[in-house]
Amino acid sequence: MEIFNQKVAKNYNQWYAINTRWDELEKRLILKLIKPDYGKTLLDIGCGCGWHLKWFKDLGLKVWGVDKSPFMVKEANRFLGENIVEIMDAENLKFNDKSFNFVTLITVLEFTKNPEKVLREALRVAQEKVFVGVLNKYSWLGIKRKIESFFKKESLYKKAKFFSVREILKLLHDIIKNGKIEWETTIPHAPRKNRWAAFIGVIVEK
């Protein structure tokens, strides 16, 4: 069963529109780690309904998006006002090596069967940096969503795999032989960068 169905796609961006504080913190973290230059290219893998793509586009980046769900792709192109998002499997991207300056995966690995393969593909098509954003399994929000998924018949998080800081860093270190890895969370200036924050951002600089 497709969890990202037509009903989900129609309402997906509303969460960000309502939760403005969360959206602001998440974007601030992404911007801090990517440090994008105007006019450079960016691919958003698993872009959903295009919420972050529109933001990247407004920043002056040349953007493309891919998503496995045809419902999400249709809604993303409608939201963006142009056909820059296409249906594609994150484990098998139809792009040449180093096709984009930046590649982002924002709450995508949680819903993939093979996170390692997805990360390898992202690294393959990136020239400069790959940003990985995941939901923290040990955060209050991560625990809350998992508990709620047991009681809700239709929940996006029933089969989702959340990551801890340690787990996502280990996964990346197992893949990357050369490259700089840096991580942060949506709670800045906290001891150990707050390993219990809801959202973890990792940047891989090639």
Notes on the structure:
The chain has about 210 residues and is of the alpha/beta class. It has one domain (about 5-205): Vaccinia Virus protein VP39 (Rossmann fold), CATH 3.40.50.150. About 40% of the residues lie in helices and about 20% in strands. The protein has a 7-stranded mixed sheet with strand order 3-2-1-4-5-7-6, with helices on both faces. α4 links the parallel β2 (about 60-65) and β3. The longest helix is centred in the first third of the chain and has 15 residues, at about 20-35. About 40% of the residues are buried.
Order of helices and strands: HHEHEHEEHEHHEE
The CATH superfamily title: Vaccinia Virus protein VP39
The CATH topology is given as Rossmann fold
Classification by helices and strands: alpha/beta
* Main beta-sheet annotation: 7 strands, mixed
Radius of gyration: 16 Å
Tell me which CATH architecture applies here.
3-Layer(aba) Sandwich
Q: Give the overall average pLDDT.
A: 89
Q: How are the strands ordered across the major sheet? A: 3-2-1-4-5-7-6
Cα-to-Cα separation, first versus last residue: 37 Å
CATH class: Alpha Beta
Task: Give the strand content.
Answer: 15-25%
Q: How many structural units, i.e. domains?
A: 1
User: What proportion of the residues is helical, as a percent range?
Assistant: 25-40%
Helical stretch tally: 7
Low-confidence sequence ranges: none
Instruction: Assign an overall shape.
Output: globular
Short description:
The protein is of the alpha/beta class and 206 residues long.
Descriptive terms for the model:
single chain, 206 residues, alpha/beta, Rossmann fold, 7-stranded mixed beta sheet, 7 helices, 21% strand, globular
